[in-house]
Amino acid sequence: VALVCGDSVRLMDGGGRCSGRVEVLHRGQWGTVCDDDWDMRDAAVVCRELGCGEAVDVLGNSHFGPGSGPIWMDDVDCSGSESTLKNCTSAGWGKHDCNQTKNAGVICSGKITEFSLFFYDNTLGVRLVGGPRCSGRVEVLHENTWATVCFEDFDQQDAEVVCRELGCGPSMELLGAAAFGRGEGQVWTEELQCRGNESQINLCPKSSTLTHDCSHDNDVGLLCADMVRLVNSSRPCTGRVEILHQGQWGTVCDDDWDMRDAAVVCRELGCGEAVDVMGKAHFGPGSGPIWMNKVACSGSESTLKNCGSIKHDCSHDSDVGLVCSVRLVDGGSRCAGRVEVLHRGQWGTVCVFGMSTIAAVVVCRELGCGEILRPIWMSHVDCSGTESTVKHCGYLGWGKHSCLHYYDAELICSGMLKSVCIFNQSIFY
C-alpha cells in the first residue's frame, strides 16, 4: 500500500519545488504570504516542512511573480522550530495590509529527505574547488564521480544556479583557462541549460549533444559573491559586519553578539579564527536596513544566515564589527599580501628568514585560499603542516627577531586570480 499526503505549503514559479513564491493551503484554497517581517526563521520552517534542506535566502516584493487569490498570512513570526508554517503566529488568517506585489519568496538548499514523495533527477551535485568558499573550479558529481566543466559549456544562467545552490551570493564572474588550476579525472560530457532561477542544477535541463572536445586546460572557474562582508576598515578580515539579503546590503545589531557569532563570519569569509568583536558602530555606522539582531549562532554554522536572530529594535549606532585572526595585506587580493600578526592589540610582520613552504601551506589553508602559488622563504616559523592556523606553529617568540621590514615575509595563495605581481602577507593573532 502507498500513501501520499498533500502539503499545506508550496513554492511556486521558482523553477523547482524548493524555491519560489510561498503559498499556503487554507480552507481548500491556495493563497500567498505577505513579506512584512518575513525572515530566515520563517523560511527555515517552510524549507523543513517541504523536505528541502536549509533556507538559503528569503525574498520579498514578489520576486517570483505576483500570486492570485487570497493573501492568507501577514506579519509571520516563526521561532524556527515549528513543524509547519501554519503553526507560526501571524496577523490572522486573511488579515493583512498588503497586496500581491508584496508576496514572500524562499530559496531552500534543495536537499531532499529520505522520506520525500517527490522524485526528480537528484543525481547531480556541485562544488567549487581551489578557491575561497564562494569561488573555485566548477565540478559536478554525477554517478559518484566528480568531473570538471568546460568553459564553453557554462554560461551566466548556469553560474547563477550554482552560486544559489551553494548558499553564496550572485554570480560575479566566469573564468576560463583553468584559473583555479587544472582538474583531474573526466570532463563532464553534458551541458547545463539552466534558465537561471532554479534552486539547484539537478533541476536544470541538460544536453548531451556536445560536439567539441575539451581538456582540463579549459576548466571553468566561478566567482560568487559572499553573503556577508566586512567593511569600513583599511584591512581585510576586519570591519563592520554586513549581510546581503533581498539583494540589499544591511548591518547587524550588536545585541548579544559574541565570539561564536564572529567565528561563523570569519570562517565563512576564509579569514581564520575570530579574535575580537566590537559593538557600538566601532567601524562607523552603516546605512540601509538592519537585517539581524540578537544573533544566536552555535559556532558550527556554515553561514551567518543560518544562525537564529530576531527583528531589531536598534539603530546604526549599534552596528557590530569584528576582527578575524588572519589576513594578507597590500596584495591587491585577500589571498596575497604581507604576512602580519596581531599580538596584544598591535599588528606586526613576520621575518622572511627560515619560514618554510609548509608554513605557507598552513597560512593559505587557514585563509581558505587554496594552495601556494609562489614558494616563500620566511624566518624561524616552523610548521608541521597539520596546523589549522599558523599561530599554532613554532617560532622564536613574540617580538624576537634579527631582521628589518625589508625582509617581511611574502606569500601568494591560489585564491588570488588576476594579479601577477608578488605581494606580502599578513597574519592576525
Automatic annotation (TrEMBL):
<protein>
    <recommendedName>
        <fullName>SRCR domain-containing protein</fullName>
    </recommendedName>
</protein>
<keyword id="KW-0812">Transmembrane</keyword>
<feature type="disulfide bond">
    <location>
        <begin position="297"/>
        <end position="307"/>
    </location>
</feature>
<keyword id="KW-0732">Signal</keyword>
<keyword id="KW-0472">Membrane</keyword>
<feature type="domain" description="SRCR">
    <location>
        <begin position="326"/>
        <end position="414"/>
    </location>
</feature>
<feature type="disulfide bond">
    <location>
        <begin position="34"/>
        <end position="98"/>
    </location>
</feature>
<keyword id="KW-1133">Transmembrane helix</keyword>
<feature type="disulfide bond">
    <location>
        <begin position="163"/>
        <end position="224"/>
    </location>
</feature>
<feature type="disulfide bond">
    <location>
        <begin position="150"/>
        <end position="214"/>
    </location>
</feature>
<keyword id="KW-0325">Glycoprotein</keyword>
<feature type="domain" description="SRCR">
    <location>
        <begin position="9"/>
        <end position="109"/>
    </location>
</feature>
<feature type="disulfide bond">
    <location>
        <begin position="194"/>
        <end position="204"/>
    </location>
</feature>
<keyword id="KW-1015">Disulfide bond</keyword>
<dbReference type="Pfam" id="PF00530">
    <property type="entry name" value="SRCR"/>
</dbReference>
<keyword id="KW-0677">Repeat</keyword>
<feature type="disulfide bond">
    <location>
        <begin position="47"/>
        <end position="108"/>
    </location>
</feature>
<feature type="disulfide bond">
    <location>
        <begin position="78"/>
        <end position="88"/>
    </location>
</feature>
<dbReference type="InterPro" id="IPR001190">
    <property type="entry name" value="SRCR"/>
</dbReference>
<feature type="domain" description="SRCR">
    <location>
        <begin position="228"/>
        <end position="325"/>
    </location>
</feature>
<dbReference type="InterPro" id="IPR036772">
    <property type="entry name" value="SRCR-like_dom_sf"/>
</dbReference>
<feature type="disulfide bond">
    <location>
        <begin position="383"/>
        <end position="393"/>
    </location>
</feature>
<feature type="domain" description="SRCR">
    <location>
        <begin position="126"/>
        <end position="225"/>
    </location>
</feature>
<dbReference type="GO" id="GO:0016020">
    <property type="term" value="C:membrane"/>
</dbReference>
